[in-house]
Amino acid sequence: MQFLSDGAETVRNLQMYISPQSEHWLDWFHITMRLTVMGQMRKGMNGVEASALVEQAEQDLESLKWHLWNGNVEPALKLVDGLKVLLGGDGISAERQKLLKAVREFGAYIATNQAFIPDYGDRYRNKETISTAFAESAVNQLVSKRMVKQQQMHWTQRGAHLLLQVRAQVLNKELRETFRRWYPGMMAENETGMPLAA
Questions:
Q1: pLDDT of 135 strictly over 70
Q2: pTM
Q3: C-alpha dist (Å) from residue 47 to 55, 89, 93, 103, 119
Q4: Which of 27, 45, 90, 186 could form a disulfide with 49 if both were Cys (CB 3.0 to 4.6 A apart)?
């Protein structure tokens, strides 16, 4: 079994408690999300900072992404250190300060999760899961739409939580067994979908 997470210690501790023998990986989606935000911050420095500095930051961010994609954590952390030096200094612009802060936070994030960063490129080529982006996107769209108060069928926080629990059981193929525990007289299905006697 494999677990992907955003790198939060509480989530990973729960995953390891549930299944310590499983593979535990940092979700590529969460790495690229942070890199994309830093890329946007770098663009915000155009016209504010020297073009050579902005270009170097762009190259370093691209190189950082490549190293992480290939599971090369040590060179990635060295690039983070280099970016901190490049962006540091006195009297720097607000845009540069924001990027520097994001780079520092990203470096700490990668250092904390380095044991859970695989070679994503190799996993991708072998058709192994590297990201939950498709699920995260669907959940974000659905939940954000239904949590809006003007929505005709508005969800409460409790209702959304219960719905997501049901959806997780459906995806894990556990819902029927849950119903059978609640209703022992419920019939099981064989592999063809035909009812069997309970």
A1: no
A2: 0.66
A3: 12, 18, 11, 20, 36
A4: 45
